[in-house]
Amino acid sequence: MKNVQETIKLSGFNNLTKILSFNFYDFCIAMNEKQKQDYINYIHTKYCAANISEIARNVCKIIEANILSETVQDYEPVGASTMTLMSDIKGGGNWEMGAQGQAAVKMHLDKSHITTHTYPDASDPEGICTFRLDLDVATCGEIIPLRALNYMFEAFECDVVYIDYVVRGYTRLENGQKIYNDHYFNSIQDYIKKETLDKYQYRQDINMAHDNIWQTKLMVKPMGPENYLLDPNDKNHPEIDHKMELLNKEMREVFHLN
User: Residue 124: is its pLDDT beyond 60?
Assistant: First the structure.
């Protein structure tokens, strides 16, 4: 017997889409081949598909979205992907003009999703291991995915971060007027706590509001080797200064400082 899923009825016209891409890198120093494998095992456990799917569920709660369905996939030897289909918690309908001529939503229509992909890398012969996770939130309607940014910083270990935000499409009001963005702000960093931003030494910000494009790049302030070692005793290793130089070089390259 087939499972019949309730059909979501679409009404009105709205193709206004907001896309948030949260990409972060985590770094680690492995002093030998065993530690490389230990790091991969750690990543495979901490960021398995089930765990990052739970993070996606929490994002849905923060941005007030209903989960429609979920797909999870772990890969061998490493890596994971998830997809969460969601809709606005308030349902579908029409738009109207609010105070001061800004677009306000009475009821609206959504087709939204969250996808995540992980990319662990322990192939560097010098033992500088990296882990990248991409989390993309694509929404329609009243949902503003930027509201979940502080949670993302709490959920992940972010040494280097890229955040991109793009708004595309439009909503046509009953009088024929098109709305190309329903919320107004200066910078992605407006949505990030000051104490979080203060952890980063490099903070690049691109704001092209007239094109509905924003980007923020962050690179963490220098920290001691104990923050990147699997075995704290390795901080006294004779090669640790060299390894830290390589790690900093890797971070700068990822951040595109070199």
Answer: yes
